[in-house]
Design brief:
single chain, 242 residues, alpha+beta, Immunoglobulin-like, 2 domains, 5-stranded antiparallel beta sheet, 3-stranded antiparallel beta sheet, 8 strands
Length: 242
């Protein structure tokens, strides 16, 4: 029996044994990556060597340098244009602010001019004349709209040069309006506001009066008539159109 086993082992049909060394898989992956990186570096080195040998590598470097220089010039030019635009915008803002200030100053000068004209008219009325005039008169009446339904009025009332006592009376404003295609007259002060102080008069030589009237919504003013009353009797009146 032993002899048969020995013959079987020594015969051709005996199984073969192969001895292989097993490496851990991380070492295998590391070796594979190293081989790929080494091959890529070698390929790049050969490619660069070929470009330098044919003279193309130097030309590419020069082109890159030229492109960088052109990019720097364009960036500098863009910065200059941006600075110019910012300076222009600042100058425009300054000019607009100056225009607003000038417009406000012009408005103040116009108002002052109106007051000076009123004063001139008053002093001219103080000059002696051969004929007597009314005891009280409306020397100037101006009206204008300052809002959707706000009416501003200004008057200069004067008493004749012979006036030696204070004039005591009241002011009434009759505003001709148009609403829904119909004309109507609104009186200020109304019956419920007859005691409002801005419509009471008391002066020796002259008195300036100005104020705001609030009209009903949807109403447009066409003209204003100022009436001066003394002891219930109308002494003088004047009208102004809008």
């Amino acid at each position: 029996m032993r002899f048969k086993l020995w013959l079987r082992r020594m015969s051709i049909s005996a199984p073969r044994m192969t001895i292989r060394s097993q490496l851990p898989w991380p070492l295998k992956m590391l070796a594979m990556v190293f081989a790929i990186a080494l091959g890529g570096a070698a390929a790049l080195w050969i490619y660069d060597l070929g470009r330098q040998f044919t003279g193309r590598g130097t030309s590419a470097n020069q082109d890159v340098a030229a492109y960088r220089e052109q990019l720097e010039k364009l960036s500098a030019q863009r910065d200059r244009y941006s600075s110019t635009v910012n300076a222009s915008e600042s100058q425009l803002i300054i000019e607009r602010s100056a225009q607003k200030q000038l417009a406000a100053q012009v408005k103040l000068l116009e108002d002052e001019n109106v007051r000076l004209k009123e004063d001139l008219a008053f002093f001219e009325s103080l000059l002696p004349t051969g004929t007597g005039g009314p005891e009280v008169s409306i020397r100037r009446l101006t009206v204008d709209m300052v809002g959707q339904n706000q009416l501003r009025y200004r008057l200069l009332l004067m008493q004749g040069a012979r006036g030696n006592s204070d004039f005591i009376g009241t002011l009434q404003l009759a505003v001709t309006t148009l609403q829904a295609g119909r004309s109507a007259v609104i009186l200020f002060p109304t019956a419920n506001s007859s005691g409002m102080p801005q419509f009471k008069l008391g002066f020796r030589h002259y008195q300036r009066i100005e104020g705001l009237l609030t009209l009903p919504d949807g109403t447009s003013a066409k003209s204003v008539q100022a009436r001066i009353f003394e002891k219930g009797q109308m002494r003088t009146q004047a009208s102004a159109n809008l």
